[in-house]
Amino acid sequence: MTTPSVTAPAGHPAEPDRSTGAGPGPGAAEAPRGPARRDAEATKAAILRAVRHLHARHAQADITLKAVAERAGVSAPLILKYFGNKDTLFAQVMSFEEDAVALLDAPLADLGRHMVRHVLVSQTEQGADPVLRIVFAPLHRERGETLRTNFRAQVGDRLAARLSGPDAGLRAELAVSALLGLSVMFGIVRGPHVRTADIEDIVERYGPLVQAQLTS
Amino acid sequence: MTTPSVTAPAGHPAEPDRSTGAGPGPGAAEAPRGPARRDAEATKAAILRAVRHLHARHAQADITLKAVAERAGVSAPLILKYFGNKDTLFAQVMSFEEDAVALLDAPLADLGRHMVRHVLVSQTEQGADPVLRIVFAPLHRERGETLRTNFRAQVGDRLAARLSGPDAGLRAELAVSALLGLSVMFGIVRGPHVRTADIEDIVERYGPLVQAQLTS
């Protein structure tokens, strides 16, 4: 519910109704200050938030660079400067590689709690979510299948490789299921209780459920 | 993975890539037999599957009765005969009322396992899911907010009312989170392990996680 300065969640799928999606949304409120006042990382983050926002509402083929630029409050040439071309830009949204590194960055014994905390902190502080965009796969037809394939390999299989014991693949999918559901509840359903509870309270309640799949 | 005769999952969000979505999909394979050979309930179910399929890919305002009819393999007048008008038809997709009744139809002590089983059986046997369509709320702009409001009241609040002890609202949302995640993993990610595992195996592994929120 907090909206930190540059990383306001306006461009996130979690926040679809605060803006019409036409033209710069609340996330573009920084725009008048001009890109010169942002550092490159913040600008890239704003562009990626804009892409993710649009990716939750339109088939990828229908998303123009201009629409991304307007929503991010930057110029289209600036996007090209940072990302090369539209394909490279969308590749960032289609890949879960970097997200998985951060999501799984904890010792196995504490991984359940870490993953729950990471999802909640990402949504509240970065206005982004490491896994939620997979739910929009049906929108993107054949590209949705790429999204699925990436997700399974980069998140599911990578987690499974960390697990010992039988049925590691199934247990990894069930642990990821629990995380995905929390992402949906927080970011899409916007459940009033999960959105107002203390993050550590949710970590305490929900982390063990995830962990039970990992080390049981 | 099974495709029972009339209730094939073709019209479900879970199955977006088996069909282009243009014209009758695999779910319409029954069409040549003609509506006269179906009973009314099966026809209604086919129409609702078609609506749900399209609702996962297009803003509601862009979905025509003709597109629903084509996908369901029925005529538009037949849809009107069963549902009155387009608004009544979409109201069925926007409401979780009937789904919640079936989802929550178990004693509290066994509710976690029942809900997990219900989600999996619905996906595999009816080609539908009681809760999954909430994830497409961002597609539908202001109608998405109706979907959210309905979901919170009809599923979350109703479950919370069954719970005793502190933080019933938060615990209900966390239990529903776990279910939603399983729906997403099965229906959208199409995790190969959850899709091939025995349903009762998943119920045994995942049911207790849901139950822990309900009766802990």
UniProtKB/TrEMBL annotation, chains A, B:
Top-rank taxon, per record: Bacteria
PROSITE patterns tied to this protein:
HTH_TETR_2
What keywords is this UniProt entry annotated with? DNA-binding, Transcription, Transcription regulation
One Pfam match, given by its short name, reads: TetR_N
Where do the record's region annotations for Disordered lie?
1-41
Q: Where is the HTH tetR-type domain?
A: 41-101
Q: Under what name is this protein listed?
A: TetR family transcriptional regulator
Native species: Streptomyces macrolidinus
